[in-house]
């Protein structure tokens, strides 16, 4: 049996005693007429051809070709290792599958499911990436982009906002993205800083330069606000989600404390220049309104 395809696999006929092979215990039924072998040929899986034909476009095409009537059944050697093949077949056959504990495993499963045109496992993986506890949203975003899962890619791009994607530790992961996916992610992160800067330079904030006290109209050089604004924008480079600004920054940063203590330089007035709670509220609203997905 031969099939013109880009996928790597091979078949074997009667030169192997199939009864002596090491089968996975949940894929060992004698009634199954197809044997799938893992890459290292250490574990074999007996699966009904009907299941493969009806759930995989790849195997549907394979089994539509003329078949020789051989007994025992053919062995099909695939290029996935035993763990990947087991999880994929569990999804395909409706069995419970174990937690996917690494990004590499998730990527390999998604790749194999797409390669063999298995819509069922792909749908499960698509849902899984939104609920998994795997910790790197950039790699999950890469999987979603690679498979054209637009809504999942948007949500996962939001999760990257807690990361500094300019950090050297993420370079290898970012290289796995397509040019468009990478550019969209960088634009999202940079635009949040730029848009916040624009908002902080617009009313009701003072954009810079000299202003006057609203109580006594004494001239004021608002340097404390300038320093706090610079600190907030620097923080947005490191963590564009902006939560550290609101949760800790505006209450504990030296720049924030100086700003809340700043008073009118006119001795008879000494009015506080900033309403702390109102200023924090407006900053919070500015961050909330920033675009948060690609």
TrEMBL record:
TM ranges: none
The segment(s) forming the BTB domain are: 32-92
Q: Which InterPro entries match?
A: BTB/POZ_dom (IPR000210), SKP1/BTB/POZ_sf (IPR011333)
Q: Which organism is it from?
A: Panaeolus cyanescens
**What protein is this chain from?**
BTB domain-containing protein
A Pfam short name: BTB
